[in-house]
Amino acid sequence: MPEGQETGTHNQTENQVDPLERYSRQMRFGGIGRSGQEKIAASRVVICGCGALGTVLANNLVRAGVGFVRIVDRDFVEWSNLQRQVLFDENDVREQVPKAVAAVEKLKLINSQIQLEAIVADIDRTNILQLCSDTDLILDGSDNFEVRYLMNDAAVSLKKPWIYAGCVGSYGQSMTIIPGETPCLRCVFEASPGPGEVGTCETAGVLGPVVNLIASYQSLEALKFLAGKKQALCKELFFIDLWENTQRRIKIAPLLGKVKCPCCGAKEFSWLNGDSGSQTIRLCGRNAVQVSHRSSKPLDFNQLGSQLKTSGEVQFNKFLLKFKVEEFQFTVFPDGRAIIQGTDDTEKARTLYAKYIGY
Which residues, 6+ apart, have CB-to-CB distance to 288 below 8 Å? Predict the structure, then answer.
């Protein structure tokens, strides 16, 4: 297990006779009740990513009394995070606090009854099974598809449920996945979007209320499951666009066993074994990192350039695309490979790639 920070000792004040009293309003809801609350208090979850979705998830579940919450994130708090990442403040930015640590410090003040663990680490195929194996539920707080497909492989491999979600611009979507009982992510989206095929929060923006809505939807699905109310779980892919005032519920249950899923059907875990996903190589003496992402078709530089021009300087021809933002220079090739100059930190390079190129 990567080095973590654990806090929480299930303390209670002397005059608090019933440790569940703080959840009295939640227990009064018939769907949960005292027995459901006791199950929630005995449960363990891992939140993969502590950005916009992850902070709302952590805030909701800690207040709801989930007994153990592990928060995993590789990044530090930045100014642009404060618009939508609800557990952080300006002091966290000034002190360059890792997101997982900053979140746990805030959550300790909200609920001292539960156990919290902050892990500052990049989630990849070498550690995801260990991060998830001792939990009851895996929650998607990530911002890129590589981590989501890793979560899907891990969840199916471990036979553990997980809740997918994603937001960009004014829309978001989510679905609950229980291996063996519902379609998995690859049943619905067999392949991840290629680099540059979809916008990212950096290139397309994202509205805070959308994040809050989708993460709250995730949180409630989590509470249904943890309280032992699986029959109340949504069996559909939930989609909403708040700007366009549209909402859809897409029936996905019929896909289970009806599509040739390489993951839950054939048990081919290509993201876990490294056949899919990105690879990074530090380029010696160049203060640069090469990020390679397997793309099924050549990148559309016109589309990618249009997305990137809102964030920095872009120029391209049919052979490569150059993109400059802050102190970083990207050279992107048609096969999805990118050389990122301005850092020799492979984790930083992967973060930059996901932020601007996307995958």
Answer: 282, 339, 340, 341, 342, 343, 344
DSSP state of 156: H
Kindly report, residue by residue over 122-155, the tens digit of the pLDDT.
Answer: 888 889 999 999 999 999 999 888 889 999 999 9
CA–CA dist 238, 243 (Å, integer):
16
Q: What are the tokens at 352?
A: 């930059």
To the nearest whole number, what is the mean pLDDT of the chain? 89
Angstrom distance (rounded) from CA 103 to CA 99 = 6
pLDDT at 7 over 80: no
Domains assigned to the chain:
4-255 (3.40.50.720), 278-356 (3.30.310.10)
Tell me, what's the pLDDT at 277? 72
d(CA 234, CA 56): 20
Q: In terms of Cα–Cα distance, which of 30, 22, 174 is closest to 111?
A: 22
Beta bridge partners of 207: none
Q: Which two tokens stand for residue 25?
A: 């309003």
Q: Which amino acid is at 164?
A: Y
